Amino acid sequence: MKRGYVKLFRRSLEHPMFRNPALWHFWVYCLLKATHKFYSAIVGFQLVELRPGQFIFGRRQASVETGLSEQTVRTCLKTLLTCGMVTSESTHRYTVITVVNWKEFQEWKPGDDPLADQEGTQPQPTADHVQAQETQTPQKQNYSAEFLEFYDKYPVKKGKGAAFKAFKKARKAVGQERIIDGVSALLKAIEDGRQDASFVKYPATWLNQECWDDEYADTKKANEYRSRFK
Question: Which of 2, 30, 101, 216 is deepest in the core (most CB within 10 A)?
Answer without folding.
Answer: 30
